[in-house]
């Protein structure tokens, strides 16, 4: 019996050595899992096993909190991008030349790890460089990427990880899965638009080709913007203002200031002037009765004179040094 005990004791070191996996074995085991599942789903134990030294491979680990009770919207928005990056990298690196593994550690599964790293926010991306081998780094601490700029795309994180790798290693490209639902939706929408155009064109085309409609639209747009509409939106000017006597001031002093109601009054003046000019040029010549035509000429000419006189008086109200005027205002 004593020789049996001695034999068992002598075999213990070899048993422990066999049970302890090398860095290469760990890489092969984890890579085999990622080939079918994409980024590895980790817990405290597997995180420690994956990142412990010695390590002749690189590891990119996303520490996140996906459950809705944690309220991490950024975590849930970025997770699909992370999955696309991990699967694309593994499929593109078929010969494992880069020796990079991707993993995801959720807070629910890795509370001890979060506490040991003293993490207060999520998500956080850690990149562990190799500790042994030709690409080993002297500093064994991981490189950290914080999502301070908001959600990141798979391409942006791919560029960041690529900067961590030696220049002679390949960078597998990202291949996004085909979104068949989006393709069907876009195709259906395009066909629907085409069908609507074909069916509605006999009714819509005459409206769109109407010269009077486009003339009215152009005139309204010109009057709107020449009266200071955009100035009001940019400067956030008041609609009206009070005067020292307790009344209301409709016009702001100075040519670089104006009120909201003032721009509407000026637009109305421009509109009346434009309508009077159009009537004199287009409508009056078509009047067959000479007396009615003569009356229309005097009428629209009077409207032009009065409105332009009022416009000049507005200029004088805004700036007392304005020299031009016309009767009756």
TrEMBL record:
The keyword Transmembrane helix applies. The chain crosses the membrane at residues 180-200, 212-231, 265-284, 296-315. Belongs to the OST3/OST6 family. It comes from Trematosphaeria pertusa. Keywords: Endoplasmic reticulum, Membrane, Signal, Transmembrane, Transmembrane helix. It is a multi-pass membrane protein. GO terms for biological process: protein N-linked glycosylation via asparagine. Pfam families: OST3_OST6 (PF04756). This is Magnesium transporter protein-like protein 1. One of its GO terms (cellular component) is oligosaccharyltransferase complex. Its main location: endoplasmic reticulum. It is found in: Endoplasmic reticulum membrane. It comes from the Eukaryota. The lineage of its organism: Eukaryota, Fungi, Dikarya, Ascomycota, Pezizomycotina. Residues 1-18 form the signal peptide.
